[in-house]
Amino acid sequence: MRISEENRNMFLLAAVTLCCGVLAGAVALFEPVPGPGPAKQQTANAPIDVPAPTPVRVVGAPFEPNLNPRER
After folding, report:
1. Three-state SS string across the chain, please?
2. Quick one: which of 32, 49, 31 has its CA closest to 40?
């Protein structure tokens, strides 16, 4: 059985997609599953612990949007 010339690209795309899907499925099967961790009791009034943001250095002039395009 020969694949017609018009369908070769679609056949190649389907074959590559199938191989990548099988490979991703095999990797997902062997990926370790995290075990159950310690259960934390979160109350409604308890504050959420959020780390402080990393300081960022800004280089150059600050951005000011051009609100009036006629004035430059």
Report:
1. CCCCHHHHHHHHHHHHHHHHHHHHHHHHHHCCCCCCCCCCCCCCCCCCCCCCCCCCCCCCCCCCCCCCCCCC
2. 49
Q: How far is the C-alpha of 54 from the C-alpha of 57, rounded, in Å?
A: 10
| Intra-chain end-to-end CA distance of the chain, in Å | 68
Average pLDDT over residues 34-55: 72
- Model confidence, pTM: 0.44
pLDDT of residue 22 exceeding 80: yes
At 26 the pLDDT is 95
